[in-house]
């Protein structure tokens, strides 16, 4: 009898420890953003073929196991800058008017008039830090959109020049004023170390850390020892299982492990929310996003569906897997709700807070998402000028260059191989009308220029 009582007590303790709790205070917040990381790269996202794990991501896999992993999370755009616009402003890049990545001489930039996420969180007493990639500045010589003008308390190892083509070993050509702290310094390791230092320095107050990695953006460059290890693994190949990309991802993963260990060491684990995601899908010329179609710069799933992990021990149920459709736009309102920050009544937010979903007080709901990606000419990675809508399980893509329409049922065809636009004309008309109505009412949404006969 005593043994049964003891066993019951242990079970009760376990249930109490792992039960979701309504948070009593706003958490510390860490956003870890990878660059160009596709949906299928992590082990916990099946990593290519079912049962095959070429890339090694043990720390991210454990993070997912300790929290919630989303299987239908999306970037707001198939390229870098507009997704980061969505993250920082909570507004669709079509509304802001920046729908493609910014290059070195671009006159566009994120205006300081926008109240960025860090500025909102500062209202609740958060100390904010940006470590790494910003890419919202445009012409860096003019410095109009640099992070210092957006209210960050700390800006660390962030680019002061154009960042194309990658640069992962010191000296960093886009950060010429950043001295190395170690011999042969590797950029991802440096950013991870800076993140650990930021947490330790700010452990006594609420903090918001935005760790924005430059990896795994091309040109790919992993640490030589790690690259050599992956080259020896069975199945190593140029695109399907890329040793350079795997090595770069391992460095990101190691940083996640270091951050989690630091939070444990400082007794901050149960008071810290960690979000991990990417800005767009992997580049098809260096990786495969299978089973998804396409990659970076395309509105197929491979260009916009992303890994998304949320971990907050004691609040988010461990081992949870959510099929909720979410978007980068949702991060802004979610964090404001968790931090008890009320945005100005005239501030338009295009995302929805998923805070109730994280803490277990709201079930999965149906969503409609929109993409707007007008291009004057095809992107060098293969992307075409287009818009898209996902409503329920159906997704429609409208190409602005030739008027082509594609319709897919993602529930049955996640690889988008079967175009249903001719078989389901009513659904095609419904979604196309809805997409064009959204585009017309969304402020600053640029209209197609390559085929003026197509009416938005």
* CATH level-4 homologous superfamily of the largest domain: Alkaline Phosphatase, subunit A
Low-confidence stretches: 1-19, 447-456
| CATH domain fold name of the largest domain | Alkaline Phosphatase, subunit A
* CATH architecture type of the largest domain: 3-Layer(aba) Sandwich
Please summarize the sheet with the most strands.
9 strands, mixed
Number of domains: 2
Estimate the mean pLDDT confidence: 91
- What is the beta-strand fraction? 15-25%
Counting DSSP H or I runs of 4 or more residues, the number of helices is 12
| Helicity level | 25-40%
What's the total number of strands? 13
If you compute it from the alpha carbons, what radius of gyration comes out, rounded to the nearest whole angstrom? 22 Å
Give the termini distance in whole angstroms.
73 Å
Overall morphology:
globular
What is the oligomeric state here?
single chain
The CATH class of the largest domain: Alpha Beta
Order of helices and strands: HEHEHHHEEHEHHEHEEEHHEEEEH
Helix-and-strand structural type: alpha/beta
Quick structural gist:
The protein has 456 residues and is an alpha/beta fold.
Would you write up a description of this structure?
The protein is an alpha/beta fold. The chain folds into 2 domains: 24-358, 3-Layer(aba) Sandwich (Alkaline Phosphatase, subunit A), CATH 3.40.720.10; 368-441, Arylsulfatase, C-terminal domain (2-Layer Sandwich), CATH 3.30.1120.10. Helix content is 27%, strand content 16%. The strands form 2 sheets. Strands 1, 2, 3, 4, 5, 6, 7, 8 and 9 form a 9-stranded mixed β-sheet that branches. It has a 4-stranded antiparallel β-sheet with strand order 10-11-12-13, with helices on one face. A hairpin with a 2-residue loop joins strand 11 (386-391) and strand 12. Helix 6 (187-201) runs parallel beside helix 8 and helix 7 (224-231) packs across helix 8. The longest helix has 23 residues, at 243-265.
